[in-house]
């Protein structure tokens, strides 16, 4: 019996020890939880509302006691009423408000407010139990917590209620700290006016100093003060760092700070400081400084002169704010403004150039077309063959200049073919134009470094080739004594935008680069180099002044970018960025014999407001064995087709006065749906041309056209 009794006692004491250890562990965990209450994810000075504190508190106490719903009500100091601050879930708001009203009417709330511990009472319908706890600090009652626990009262341990009480009390103090911070922050906004009243409060003064240091660090502003009587000077830590020192590394002196002013600005600033001392007590200025390690910075300076009662100057205090980044941004904005101005200028000149080009194309139609017709009728040994060939070649060269004008007008890329840029470079290097260039510049050497497998791009091979020719020609002109032009191509992936001569966005590009070892381009000329008719060459002898403008317009028409770098006396480099495509290039087309596109007597109606163009078109059509008629306006064409059918209509796009080509075609298909038509224009493909093609016009040909071009277009359309 005695042995059994001892074992029972041992088991009893072991259970007590286990219970006490468990209670001790729970107590330590509870205290640790309570101590961690104030450790919010955000510092108190970054919290924008009290709900952040209440949310954090609810996350903690729900680890102890799960609630079906709960609400925090905070005291409104204006009328001592309770206002809902946080409720979870939100749909229980009305229910909880009803309980608060009931507790107030039953005077239960007043009883609970007199006690600083959890109180459990029945709700208004006496169906559920409410846990009530005041949000109270040593200064005042800040509110009340009301919740509906999910567990019965008898199952909530006392230690749990004690920890819950610690959390609620800590929440009240956190709310008080938050309100205190807001109050102090409001005071700090008006710190200068209230500094005398804050001097007596060391704690607030230290907080103010900390905030001031943070503000100086964030805005990169350093402050200083200089006493004329003692010669002493004070620098803030931020000013030390702005000048390139660590805090306290050197003795702050007036002479040292003046010595950091940029040599080019120093005399002017010092002279102004002496002038301001007499005329202006508070001054602002902008100038450059040089840091200890030689870095140049732009600063915004504010200085205030202090005088004693007798009017004698006694001290000077001020601030330095680093505005280097702001200056860089202003410079970038000015660069963008100039680029926009340049773009608008190019647009204006382009409109003018487009109108001129349209008229010239109509004139060139006869110069290019008639020699071709006459050459087909003359024997090869006729003495007229060579003069006619020269007339034809001159017309084609003039047409090339017109194409430059159309490119300048941003209307020149009507073709969207797949291009291998290496093919264009190799085509030019083996052309007679390149041979002529080398002949005129005997000391010229052209070297290449071409990407082995360049990405394809889309656009007009004629325009891109012309842009490359212009760059290479300009490079040769820039090397008066001869030199090397390096032509290279490269696949490039731009990950981060490039802020160079142009703003190049991220993407995949094929870059065509032309670099020379010539005289270089001055910064002044770089700003104007792409303007139409701006040239350093002799106008009429070595250039038209359109070359670089054509390069710019071509690149922009292809949605590309230009980067330009130059070093006077060493050379220049142009990089043209063209967006890539995943389309495959088509095989090259061979020239067709005349028999392949000769007509079979079909009837054609020519609509053109220019008499010479009508006569030339009729001559071409007669040579191609078509039966052709011509009218001078859209109105005449519609009237003609009402009484006579034709197999196909060739419509000029721009006709004045009266209907243009699009309106004419709309009228024609209204009376003859499906009428076959070809659109011709001295402009490149415009939106109205595209609309006509969508309506059913089958082909678009650009003036001046030759026999082969018009013949192939007619044959293809009539075969449909």
Describe this structure in words.
47% of the residues lie in helices and 22% in strands. With 720 residues, it is α+β, with helices and mostly antiparallel strands. It folds into four domains: 157 residues, GAF domain (Beta-Lactamase, 2-Layer Sandwich), CATH 3.30.450; 103 residues, PAS domain (Beta-Lactamase, 2-Layer Sandwich), CATH 3.30.450; 167 residues, 2-Layer Sandwich (Heat Shock Protein 90); 124 residues, 3-Layer(aba) Sandwich (Rossmann fold), CATH 3.40.50. Strands 11, 12, 13, 14, 17, 18 and 19 form a seven-stranded mixed β-sheet that branches. It is elongated.
Return residue spans where pLDDT drops below 50 for at least 5 consecutive residues. 538-542
Distance between the termini: 120 Å
Class of the largest domain, according to the CATH hierarchy?
Alpha Beta
Strand content: 15-25%
CATH fold call of the largest domain:
Heat Shock Protein 90
Number of domains: 4
Largest sheet: 7 strands, mixed
- Which secondary-structure class do the elements indicate? alpha+beta
Mean model confidence by pLDDT = 79
Q: Considering the protein shown, what is the CATH homologous superfamily of the largest domain?
A: Histidine kinase-like ATPase, C-terminal domain
Radius of gyration: 44 Å
Q: What's the count of strands?
A: 24
Q: Give the overall form.
A: elongated
């Amino acid at each position: 019996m005695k042995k059994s009794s001892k074992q029972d006692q041992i088991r009893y004491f072991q259970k007590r020890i286990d219970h006490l250890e468990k209670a001790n562990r729970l107590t330590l965990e509870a205290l640790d939880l309570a101590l961690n209450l104030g450790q919010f994810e955000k510092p108190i000075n970054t919290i924008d509302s009290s709900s952040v504190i209440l949310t954090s508190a609810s996350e903690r106490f729900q680890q102890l006691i799960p609630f079906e719903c709960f609400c925090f009500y905070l005291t409104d100091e204006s009328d001592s009423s309770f206002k809902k601050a946080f409720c979870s879930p939100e749909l229980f708001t009305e229910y909880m408000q009803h309980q608060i009203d009931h507790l107030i009417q039953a005077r239960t709330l007043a009883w609970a407010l007199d006690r600083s511990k959890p109180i459990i009472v029945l709700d208004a319908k006496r169906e559920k139990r409410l846990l009530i706890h005041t949000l109270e600090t040593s200064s005042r009652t800040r509110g009340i917590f009301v919740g509906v626990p999910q567990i019965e009262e008898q199952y909530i341990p006392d230690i749990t209620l004690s920890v819950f009480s610690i959390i609620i009390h800590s929440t009240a103090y956190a709310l008080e700290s938050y309100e205190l911070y807001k109050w102090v922050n409001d005071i700090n906004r008006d710190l200068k006016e209230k500094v005398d009243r804050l001097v007596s409060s060391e704690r607030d003064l230290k907080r103010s100093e900390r905030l001031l240091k943070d503000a100086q660090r964030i805005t990169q502003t350093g402050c200083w003060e200089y006493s004329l009587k003692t010669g002493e000077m004070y620098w803030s830590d931020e000013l030390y760092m702005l000048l390139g020192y660590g805090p306290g590394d050197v003795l702050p002196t007036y002479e040292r700070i003046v010595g950091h002013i940029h040599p080019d600005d120093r005399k002017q600033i010092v002279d102004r400081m002496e002038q301001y001392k007499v005329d202006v007590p508070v001054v602002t200025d902008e100038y450059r400084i040089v840091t200890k390690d030689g870095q140049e910075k732009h600063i915004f300076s504010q200085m205030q002169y202090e005088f004693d009662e007798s009017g004698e100057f006694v001290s000077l205090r001020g601030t330095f704010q680093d505005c280097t980044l702001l200056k860089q941004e202003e410079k970038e904005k000015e660069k963008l403004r100039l680029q926009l101005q340049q773009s608008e200028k190019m647009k204006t000149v382009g409109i003018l150039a487009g109108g001129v080009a349209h008229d010239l194309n109509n004139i060139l139609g006869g110069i290019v077309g008639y020699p071709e017709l006459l050459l087909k009728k003359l024997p090869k040994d006729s003495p007229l063959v060579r003069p006619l060939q020269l007339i034809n070649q001159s017309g084609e060269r003039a047409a090339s200049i017109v194409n430059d004008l159309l490119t300048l007008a941003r209307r020149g890329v009507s073709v969207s073919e797949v291009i291998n840029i290496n093919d264009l470079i190799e085509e030019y290097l083996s052309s007679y134009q390149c041979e002529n260039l080398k002949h005129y510049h005997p000391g010229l050497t052209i070297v290449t470094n071409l990407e082995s497998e360049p990405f394809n791009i889309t656009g007009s091979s004629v325009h891109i080739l012309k842009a490359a020719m212009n760059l290479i020609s300009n490079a040769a002109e820039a090397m008066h004594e001869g030199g090397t032009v390096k032509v290279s191509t490269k696949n490039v992936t731009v990950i981060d935008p490039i802020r160079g001569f142009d703003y190049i966005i991220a993407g995949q590009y094929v870059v065509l680069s032309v670099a020379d070892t010539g005289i270089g381009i001055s910064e002044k000329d770089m700003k104007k180099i792409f303007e139409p008719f701006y040239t350093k060459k002799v106008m009429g002898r070595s250039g038209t002044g359109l070359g670089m403008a054509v390069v710019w317009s071509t690149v922009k028409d292809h949605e590309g970018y230009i980067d330009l770098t130059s070093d006077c006396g060493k050379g220049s480099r142009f990089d043209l960025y063209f967006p890539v495509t995943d389309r495959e290039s088509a095989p090259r087309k061979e020239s067709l014999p005349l028999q392949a596109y000769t007509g079979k007597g079909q009837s054609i109606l020519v609509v053109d407001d220019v008499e010479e163009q009508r006569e030339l078109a009729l001559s071409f059509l007669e040579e191609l064995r078509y039966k052709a008629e011509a009218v001078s306006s859209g109105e005449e064409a519609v009237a003609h087709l009402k009484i006579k059918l034709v197999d196909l209509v060739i419509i000029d796009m721009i006709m004045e006065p009266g209907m243009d080509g699009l309106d004419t075609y709309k009228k024609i298909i209204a009376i003859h749906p499906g009428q076959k038509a070809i659109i011709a224009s001295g402009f490149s493909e415009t939106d109205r041309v595209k609309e006509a093609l969508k309506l059913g016009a089958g082909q678009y040909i650009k003036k001046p056209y030759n026999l082969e071009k018009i013949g192939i277009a007619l044959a293809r359309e009539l075969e449909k």
